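Entry 14. Structure prediction run on the chain below.
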Amino acid sequence: MLKQLFSREIPFERLSAGELQRLDGAFRKMVAQMPSICYWVHRLDAERLLITDFFHLSMLRYRGLEVVLLENGSISYYRLPGAKIGGTGHVPAGDYRVRIVSPAGAGFLLDIRKNHLGRLEVQSLAPAAAETAPATHVELPLHVLETAKFADELKSAIASGVEWTYRSYRRAIALQQADMADELRLAPWLQTAQDISPEADTYLWMLNQPIA
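Output returned:
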């Protein structure tokens, strides 16, 4: 407990390997089917996703300081220049040209902008075949994150996706757009969101209630 107090670490629930795999799969299906909504998630290739913003309380202090990489069930993170351990340090607004290397050895060149609101925006990304970063880019050290520590962030994102779907469904009903409403309610990815979290389940239940 004292370690958590001094490190400002929020306790997290331990999940089994199967639970983590299911959570990762649900998140990936949501991103694949709703890319315009998941604007903070960037597909690097068929296996890897880059996350540049955070919304759960456990991750908010890292917003604008770090990016997270999902790769085959593993999670790694990279601190931008100026960021320090524990969500401390300072990353000024501006443009950053960086290179990251995944735990499996895949490299990527990223142009990242930190806007005046403190959010990170990916301007461009490309695979990096070179063994070292080019002179134009800064190499960001790789840090491996215990997967369970990122679970609440993934759950929060999925619940937000289901909520957005529900609100869009109600809007389509109000505008008498029956085909759009059915497409939203029957989106295949929603099946993978069941039992992910109480918040997601609430909106899933609401989606399937008759509207008077």
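The first helix runs from residue 2 to 7.
Filed with the rest of this week's runs.
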